[in-house]
Specification:
The chain is an all-alpha fold. The longest helix is centred in the last third of the chain and has 27 residues, at 207-233. Helices cover 73% and strands 0% of the residues. It is globular and about 45 Å long. The protein starts with 8 loop residues before the first helix and ends in a 15-residue tail after the last helix.
């Protein structure tokens, strides 16, 4: 039986900080590019261009011993992630950066609900209360009846659901195979899944758009890798609170670069959601359950 991997909290926090900065860079680049390229095509090109970063990983891929069970997990994650990325690209061009970031914090809440509904896990009163507070946080952000809820908001609600499935599988795989394999398999499978959707509404990109998407691919691939390193280095109870900084960075970047007004209700709602997610994760560690609700360090494309 393998010995438990030693925990390195400071290393985990460091890698989660790097992950957050990478994913905020991703959102900024996609926002800057605009919506001329259809979401499915933009997502496909991001992953296709990102395949160049897999070249150093080829030796590890060739020698990897992937079981049938792990192939199934990689496939399931790839399909979840592909559809989530399409919706995320769509949402990014329609709602502010801070709203995308805040609503993405809902993913671990969906994981908690999914575990209770489909896996038969017990949903204790403390967890029910945390889920309710998270949904209240989402309502604070959306404020239906007081503001327009546009298709971008609805897309982010769906994105958080499928990213929840993707990153729950990522946590399982990170404990079984090397980070390079986790990142490489996601890139390959998502590229294949997105290809037919991209071809259905193809718009020839300009060189500038290709350059932006290459930058997206670079920061997203780096973010996936550093996130996996964070998963391996420290418990999620340690790295989870670090994700709050992404909301701060996204709100600041949106205001400074894109002229988006800082909506105090979005920040408040994001804090409520993140607080509930942190509590859920902490409770899981306290009771020493086998599976811990995974964090979602912002958009992972």
């Amino acid at each position: 039986m393998d010995q438990p991997r030693p925990q390195r909290p400071l290393v985990g926090i460091f890698w989660m900080l790097v992950t957050g900065m990478c994913f905020v860079a991703v959102t900024a680049l996609v926002k800057y590019m605009g919506d001329r390229i259809p979401p499915a095509e933009a997502a496909f090109l991001r992953y296709l261009l990102g395949l160049v970063f897999l070249i150093p990983m080829l030796p590890a891929l060739r020698t990897a011993r992937i079981t049938k069970r792990q192939w199934a997990l990689f496939g399931g994650r790839g399909f979840c992630h592909a559809f989530g990325v399409i919706m995320w690209f769509f949402a990014m061009t329609r709602i502010p950066l801070a709203e995308v970031t805040a609503m993405n914090y809902l993913s671990p809440v969906y994981v908690t609900l999914g575990a209770a509904l489909f896996l038969g896990e017990k949903l204790a009163m403390r967890r029910i209360a945390a889920v309710i507070f998270a949904l209240i946080g989402a309502a604070i952000i959306l404020r239906p009846g007081f503001r327009e809820v546009n298709p971008g908001h609805l897309a982010m609600l769906f994105t958080a659901v499928v990213f929840a499935g993707s990153y729950m599988l990522a946590k399982v795989l990170a404990d079984e195979v090397a980070p390079t394999i986790v990142v490489a398999m996601l890139s390959i499978i998502v590229t294949l899944v997105l290809a037919p959707f991209a071809l259905m509404s193809w718009v020839t990109p300009t060189l500038a758009e290709l350059a932006i998407l290459f930058g997206v691919a670079f920061f997203a691939t780096a973010g996936h890798y550093t996130m996996t390193l964070a998963f391996r280095a420290a418990p999620l109870t340690v790295t989870q609170p670090v994700t709050f900084l992404q909301l701060v960075w996204a709100a600041s970047l949106g205001a400074i670069v894109f002229g988006e007004a800082v909506d105090i209700w979005v920040v408040l709602g994001g804090c409520v959601i993140l607080g509930s997610v942190t509590f859920i994760t902490w409770r899981e560690a306290v009771v020493r359950r086998k599976h811990i609700t995974p964090s979602t360090p912002e958009t992972k494309v």
